[in-house]
Structures are given as C-alpha cells and as structure tokens.
From TrEMBL:
Membrane topology reported for the UniProt record: Multi-pass membrane protein
Gene that encodes it: Ocstamp
Any Gene Ontology CC annotation: membrane
UniProt main location, coarse: membrane
Methyltransferase as UniProt keyword: no
Cellular localisation: Membrane
Protein's UniProt name: OCSTP protein
C-alpha cells in the first residue's frame, strides 16, 4: 500500500512499471466513482437512467484522463474524500435527507389529509340526504294533522274551512346536492394534487441545484486548500510534524517543541484546541435547527395518519340520531260567555276532536357506499435512515478537524519539498518567539 501510494503521489512515474500501476489505480478510482455517481444521479436525484448512464460514463472517462495526466488534480481528488467529512459533506447529506422527506413523507401527509376530507365528504353527503328524507316525515305529519283539522271543521255548521291541509314543497330529488358535493370534492382533490406536485417538483429541483453546487464547491474547497498550502507558509501550519521534530533534533533545540508552546498540536493526535471545540459546538447548534424542522415534518406524518385512521374507524361506527315529531291537538266548542252569564247557564264545553301522534325518523351519517381510501401508515425505514444520516452528520461535526488534518497530510505527501519549506518556516518562527521570551 505504501508503494502504491508513493507511485500515486509522484509527479512523474519513474518507469513503465510505475506508469502501468498509476494507470491501473486511476482506472479503478474512475470506475468506482463513476458507479457511485450513477447511483447518486439515478436513485437520489431521480434523473432518468439513460441520462444518468451517459453522465456517469462521461464523468468517469474525464476523471481517468485528469487523474492520470495531472498531478495536482490527483492531490485535489484525494483531498475530496476527507473533505466530505467537513461542512460540504454535511450539505450533501442534508440534501439527501430533504429529498427523502420530500419523496416519502410529504405524499403520505397529503394522502392522509385526502382521506380525512373523504370522511368529511361522506358524512356531509349522507347527513344531507338523511335530512332531505326527513322532510317527507314533515309532509306526512302535516297532511294527517290537516285531515284532523278538516274533520273538526266539518262538524261545525257555522264555520267551515275550505281546506285544512298544510302544503309543503318537498325536494324529493337529491341529485343536485350530490352533484354539488361531487364537484366540491373534485375541486379539493385537484387542488391537493396540484400542491403535492408543486412541492415535490420544487424540492426535486432545489435538491438538484443544492447537490450540484455542493459537489462543485467540494472540488473548489479542496483546490483552495491546496492553493493556500502551496502559496502561504502560514496557512494551517501549527502541527508538530516528523520533519519539524527532525529539524529540531538536528539543530539540538528540542526544547522548542516543549510544553511552553501550547498552540502546537500533533497532526495525528486526538487533542482539539479551544477554537476547534467552539466551532464544533456552533455547527452542532446549526444542525439542530435543520433536524428539528425535519422531525416536525415526520411528526406531522404520524399525526395525520393517526387522525385519518381514527376518522375512518369512527365513521363506520357512527350511531344514528333518532328524530321524534310529536303532535298533540284538541278541538273544543264552548258557548259565548255573554249568553252563559245572561241566562245563568252552567259553563260547559264539548270536545270535538282530539289528535295525538308521534312520527319517528333516523338521521344517518355514514354509508357503505362511501368510497374512502385507507390511510397510509408512516414508513419506519424513513425515520431509521434519517436518524442514521443525522448521526453521520453529527459525527462529521467533530471529525471535521481531523479531516482537515488528513487533507494537510495528503498535501504534504504530494509536495514533500513544500512541506520541508513549511517546517523550516515554523521552526524559524518558534526560534524567534523563544528568543524574544
């Protein structure tokens, strides 16, 4: 492995054997990265398979030529891997989480909301039909009551009503209401479909833009690090490297690397400086906001499913509401009080007609004819994948410092002469500071 890395990091291969080994390494890297690139385009960004294949093959060939012919490009490509553990890698993982939520959670929420609306539509339709049918009860009661009034009037010769019946204009055809309910339901369904498609398309396009920008910026950040490493001796130069230790031993000044210089750390050590710890905490707080928003969306999925499931189960067991119409009627005749008092007759009244009857009807709110789609339960694998991705994201927060140290190690292995110059610069700086103190 050490020999292969030495061949890979050399500016120019020493012979035919090293040239063939370098080409084989570059070919393997291009094939693996091309396969991952195709899977990312097709599975995550949802490109068509033929477009994903064409882009992956073109990218692999271009990457092969670039790695094989350009030495700094190999260094930048090697630094991209540890750079995935920095904020750019976190952006890619966040975009993946957003895409998972948009594709798997949002349709569930919209489907369960549509199920709730179907339940409401079913209740409204059946209750309106049952209420319309109750008008027939009023018509029957009024007609029988009118018959009693007519019979009571016929028994009196002084006054007779022309017709004692009540007239109701009843709506026996409920097709108009059913049509209006159907139109309203179709309008709501179309609106929800439009909103769902708009959200999915917006998230899909936004995720593609964010992912493309993140990959480009990932390459740019690696190139920017290499440029600063080669041009600025002070950039990221506070490590106790082997070259610096060898330089201090050769010049018999090992005390320069003693405990008095607290800002120096070992590149392969686990120690974090105070600034690095503070930056990790700030990044963790920022990620907590994004995690909270995604968890709110996942919680909405569970809440809408619970409401839809409860509504579907309860609507099948809605009890009917009994309606009772009671009519009590009594018709009596009594002489005028003036004549009774004039002739001193007893107060006497006679009953002509008594009527007492109850009419029963039942209001129903559900029916087996209602077409209600079953609610969709949340996918537990989505929550598992999100938790796993966020664990990786939070791990990269604390591994970012070590990823940058690995980037410095890679750059040092590709440009050994520059690493010696940086070690000499740091040694001179430490010597001047020691003399001043």
């Amino acid at each position: 492995v050490a020999d292969l890395w030495c061949i890979y990091s050399k500016p120019v291969p020493a012979g035919g054997r090293e040239l063939r080994a370098l080409f084989l390494q570059c070919s393997c890297l291009a094939a693996v990265v091309g396969g991952l690139f195709y899977n990312w385009l097709f599975a995550s960004l949802e490109y068509s398979w033929h477009l994903a294949v064409a882009m992956a093959v073109s990218f692999s060939l271009l990457l092969l030529l670039t790695l094989f012919l350009v030495h700094p490009a190999r260094c930048v490509f090697s630094m991209i891997m540890p750079t995935l553990g920095t904020k750019q890698g976190r952006k890619l993982l966040l975009s993946t989480c957003i895409m998972i939520v948009a594709v798997n959670v949002t349709p569930n929420i919209v489907s369960n909301i549509k199920t709730i609306l179907q339940v409401i539509k079913c209740i409204c339709k059946n209750s309106s039909e049952s209420l319309l049918n109750s008008t027939a009860l009023l018509g029957t009661a009024s007609w029988e009551f009118g018959e009693e009034i007519q019979a009571a009037g016929n028994s009196i010769n002084i006054w007779r009503p022309m017709n004692g019946h009540f007239r109701f204009s009843l709506l026996h055809n409920s097709s108009l209401i059913n049509q209006q309910m159907h139109l309203a339901g179709e309008k709501v369904r179309r609106d929800f479909l439009a909103v769902e498609e708009l959200v999915k398309d917006s998230v899909r396009v936004g995720n593609k833009l964010v992912a493309g920008f993140s990959v480009l910026y990932l390459c740019f950040e690696s190139a920017w690090y290499l440029k600063n490493y080669l041009t600025n001796l002070r950039f990221d130069n506070f490590y106790i490297t082997k070259k610096l230790e060898r330089l201090a031993v050769d010049r018999k000044t090992p005390h320069l690397l003693g405990g008095w210089s607290k800002n120096l750390i070992r590149p392969m050590g686990l120690k974090l400086s105070r600034v690095e710890v503070l930056l990790c905490l700030v990044q963790a707080l920022r990620l907590a906001v994004a995690l909270t928003l995604m968890l709110v969306v996942v919680a909405m999925d569970h809440v809408t499913f619970s409401v839809a499931d409860t509504a579907v189960r309860k609507v099948a067991h809605l009890s009917v509401v009994p309606i009772t119409l009671s009519i009590k009627y009594s018709a009596k005749i009594q002489p005028l009080p003036f004549f009774l008092s004039l002739f001193q007759l007893p107060d006497k009244e006679s009953t002509l007609r008594d009527f007492e009857k109850s009419y029963h009807h039942y209001l129903t709110f559900s029916s087996a004819r209602c077409s209600i789609s079953p609610p969709l339960p949340p996918n537990p694998s989505v929550l598992f994948v999100m938790v796993l991705l966020f664990c990786i994201i939070y791990a990269t927060v604390f591994l970012e410092t070590y990823a940058r140290r690995l980037c410095r190690k890679i750059a040092a292995s590709f440009f050994e002469s520059r690493e010696e110059e940086r070690a000499l610069y740091l040694y001179s700086k430490l010597s001047r500071k020691y003399v001043e103190e």
